[in-house]
Amino acid sequence: MTAAATTPQAHPLGLDASRVPKHVAIIMDGNGRWAEDRGLPRIWGHREGAVRVRDVVERAGDLGVTHLTLYAFSSENWKRPQDEISQLMLLCVAYLDGEAERLTEEGIRLRVIGRREGLPDEVRAAIERVEGITEHATRANLTLALNYGGRDEIVDACRAIAAKATAGEITPEAIDQDTVARHLYTADLPDPDLLIRTAGEHRLSNYLLWQVSYAELFISEAAWPEFDADRFDEAVLDYAGRTRRFGKTDAQLEGTRPQ
Ligand code: IPE
Ligand code: IPE
Ligand code: MG
């Protein structure tokens, strides 16, 4: 074995591994405004946004972020004009088919969360293809939230738990936070450490309501089509300088804060 092979790689941002968020969730917002500001149809913003997804997935891997969960289409986005919805669905299929090979090569496992049955057949088929191809990838995890709503997710978990209670598989007293978490779409994922929202809005828009209870929030003024690797670095560095208290006092955390 060569010396190079045994020397640990320096972090690209000079961060200690414990300061890097393991799971970053992103509300990719501002595609439409980005396009409208340039006199372009909204779909151009969505297309440019899909290119940023590729950039951010790559940068996240370089920085040691093992889980990235991106909000691509909410359960409320069906209220948009039919034309925009159809184009977004086509873009999803194009993204999934176009990225399958790259994700496999990079060892990235793709998952999709949300109510699958509400999606068009072509989208469901593309999801199943890419989830299948990347199923055994272990280096990193990319999760797309599609037809996703945090409240729907909690309702679905309640239904599943209630069905088990009716079947006598669980008693109401045995239901705890862990039971709920294990019945969410994200049962296999850790909770997000960092939640980024682009385009300056300060709201959750029904995203990962249960899971972000203790996530650090980062709002970027940049629209998603402008959110490149440098902006992602900025959010990760900001997170690295934060103190997560989880309800404790500063004195209890002495020695765990960044220098
Ligand atoms: C985010 O950008 C993408 C989706 C919600 C699908 P928007 O389309 O919401 O862009 P704005 O917020 O209208 O600018
Ligand atoms: C949230 O953005 C959904 C996605 C980014 C997919 P929206 O643009 O739909 O959120 P609101 O309507 O401004 O709250
Ligand atoms: Mg928006």
What's the short version?
This protein is of the alpha/beta class and 259 residues long.
Termini distance? 35 Å
In CATH terms, what is the fold-level topology of one domain? Undecaprenyl pyrophosphate synthetase
Quickly give the structural class. alpha/beta
Radius of gyration: 20 Å
* Corresponding CATH architecture of one domain: 3-Layer(aba) Sandwich
The helix tally amounts to 9
Principal-axes geometry comes out as globular
Task: Give a description of the structure.
- With 259 residues, the chain is of the alpha/beta class.
- The chain has a domain at 18-81 and 146-238: Decaprenyl diphosphate synthase-like (Undecaprenyl pyrophosphate synthetase).
- It contains 9 helices and 6 strands.
- A 6-stranded parallel beta sheet has the order 3-4-2-1-5-6, sandwiched between helices.
- Helix 5 (121-133) links the parallel strand 3 and strand 4.
- Helix 2 (31-37) crosses helix 3 (42-63), helix 3 packs parallel to helix 4 (82-106) and helix 4 packs parallel to helix 5.
- It is globular and about 55 Å long.
- The two termini are 35 Å apart.
- The mean pLDDT is 96.
- The structure holds 3-methylbut-3-enyl trihydrogen diphosphate (2 copies) and magnesium ion (MG).
Which characteristics define this entry?
259 residues; binds 3-methylbut-3-enyl trihydrogen diphosphate; alpha/beta; globular; Undecaprenyl pyrophosphate synthetase; binds magnesium ion; 14% strand; 42% helix; six-stranded parallel β-sheet
